[in-house]
Amino acid sequence: GTGFSATLGLKYDFSEKFSAGATVRLASKVKMSGTAKNPLFTKLPNMPPVVVPGPGESDFDRDITWPLWIAGGIAYKPTDKLTFVLDAQYSQWSELDELSTLFNDAYWAAAMKQSDGDKFVLKWEDKIQIRTGAEYKFSDSFTGRLGYYYDPAPAPDETVNILFPSSTNHVITGGFSYTSGKFLIEGGAEYLFGAERDVEPAPHNMAGKHQMSIFSFSVGLGYSL
After folding, report:
1. What CA–CA distance (Å, rounded) separates 118 from 72?
2. Are 199 and 157 in contact (CB under 8 A)?
3. What proportions of the chain, in percent to the nearest 5, are helix, strand and coil?
4. Residue 108 has what DSSP assignment?
5. What dihedral do alpha carbons 184, 73, 97, 210 form, nearest 10°?
6. What is the reported pTM?
7. Long-range contacts: 6-10, Cβ < 8 Å, 24+?
8. Which CATH class is domain 7-32+64-223?
9. What is the pLDDT along the chain (225 residues), one digit of tens a residue?
10. Rounded to the nearest 5°, which phi and psi values hold at 86?
11. Strand, coil or helix: 118
């Protein structure tokens, strides 16, 4: 699907050592279209008002809203080589309260409405993510970075599921950049510690223990003409 939004950012340098900035990204709605398949639908009994078993697939449409995002942060540079940063990021996850699906086939529409299968209940809550980090320039060619961020889970226990994993995460990050002449090498890595959730059964969740840990890294190469 395609959606449209707008982003505005501002930065102000109070002095050579201290600066602050803020960013706002407006919410956007994306329309998704696709085909759902379930061979069992050809074997189900009559479901009034549809009086014959339906096809094994149906086209569908679904609108998803990417929420409003607001961030603000500060940077402090005590020396020419060292920089500390701190920022907060607010996401209006409550926009993702419920995802509704419109099935084009009449049999599918009736069957899914009867079982509430045309609704995906999330009831997510607004959250604020906190990030901090530091950068040190060891030399004219090498710079190192370390960071940490706290990312609280937007999904309540009553709607936790494995399709949209949601946990409160503590994340350690690190990175570097190295230049040699016109060549640039950059690398970064992070390890995410997801808090375990022991979820009790509810109508719209997947009960049980939920936990995840993620390690990711990236390497980039650049060349200046």
Report:
1. 38
2. yes
3. 10, 55, 35
4. H
5. 60
6. 0.84
7. none
8. mainly beta
9. 788 899 999 999 999 999 999 999 999 999 889 998 888 777 666 555 555 567 888 999 998 889 999 999 999 999 999 999 999 999 999 998 999 999 998 888 888 888 788 899 999 999 999 999 999 999 999 999 999 999 999 999 999 999 889 999 999 999 999 999 999 999 999 999 999 999 999 989 999 999 999 999 999 999 998
10. -150, 130
11. coil
* Secondary structure letter of residue 67 according to DSSP: P
CA–CA gap between residue 67 and residue 50 (Å, rounded) = 37
Decide if 24 contacts 70 (C-beta within 8 A): yes
Instruction: State which H helix or E strand residue 183 sits in.
Output: strand 183-194
3-class SS of residue 8? strand
CA 168 to chain centre: 13
Name which of 185, 148, 143, 193 is nearest 168 in CA terms: 193
Neighbours of 143 (CB within 10 A): 18
- Kindly give, in sequence order, each residue whose CB lies less than 8 Å from that of residue 127, ignoring residues fewer than 6 positions away: 90, 91, 93, 151, 152, 153, 154
Sorted by sequence, the CB contacts under 8 Å of residue 25 that are 6+ apart come out as 5, 6, 7, 68, 69, 70
